[in-house]
Amino acid sequence: MLTQPVAGFPRVLQESSTSCSYLLWINRYTSALKREHFMNTSATSIWASIAAFFTSKGYWAALAVLGIFMEAVALYYQYVIGDPPCQVCIHTRIWVAAFTLLAIVMCVLPARKWLNVNGHVLAIVCMAGLWERCKFLWDVENRRGDGTCEIFLNFPDWFALDAWFPAMFEVKTLCGFTPMMPLGITMAEMLVAASSVLVVISVLALGLVIRKPA
């Protein structure tokens, strides 16, 4: 940037060059501020969209679709691939069925904050129970700990799901290795990863619902 006249160079051109330098600097600074404002606005808009989704009935609808899909995959591996379910596999199916039914009920109930809070608390319980069973299944598959399972579900008569819905909840074999899934990972590994993500999402959704104005 020119600050002093240069001998032999017209003063008007020097002043013009200095003014252009100032204008160029101001233009660059303004552009940087606009980019920063755009990025901040975009980030805020994206976060607002995420928060709006987690606190809407669309979240529960997506959760219901996910649960139905997971149950369909389990039945596909049982009846098409030929991999019978063990006791812990049935436990995971029950937890998946629980959050699926919860999601369907929440889609029907009116959008009241206290109902949403209780629904999300129950969702966390379901996801935590699902994660615990998936982790137990993974431990059995990798021979960690002293985890074992039985050939019967051993539920009380008032909750005999294996007797009421044997095609879905009847134990067929002892725990062992789970079938391979796409990407070269086992079903137990896939379930641990999926349930971990669901726990995090459920906690996040509860926090957003609590912060949302009534």
TrEMBL record:
For this protein, the record's InterPro entries field holds: DiS_bond_form_DsbB/BdbC (IPR003752), DsbB (IPR050183), DsbB-like_sf (IPR023380)
Any one GO MF annotation of this record: protein-disulfide reductase activity
Answer yes or no on keyword Cell wall biogenesis/degradation: no
- One biological-process term from Gene Ontology? protein folding
Instruction: Return the SUPFAM superfamilies for the record.
Output: DsbB-like
Q: How does it sit in the membrane?
A: Multi-pass membrane protein
What's a GO cellular component annotated to this UniProt protein?
A: plasma membrane
Q: Which UniProt keywords are given for this protein, alphabetically ordered?
A: Cell membrane, Electron transport, Membrane, Redox-active center, Transmembrane, Transmembrane helix, Transport
Tell me where it resides. Cell membrane
The answer to keyword Nucleotide-binding applying to this record is no
Indicate the transmembrane segments per the record.
Answer: 60-80, 92-111, 117-134, 190-210
Gene3D superfamilies, A to Z:
DsbB-like
Q: What is this protein called?
A: Disulfide bond formation protein B
Q: Which organism is it from?
A: Halioglobus japonicus
Taxonomy of origin reads: Bacteria, Pseudomonadati, Pseudomonadota, Gammaproteobacteria, Cellvibrionales
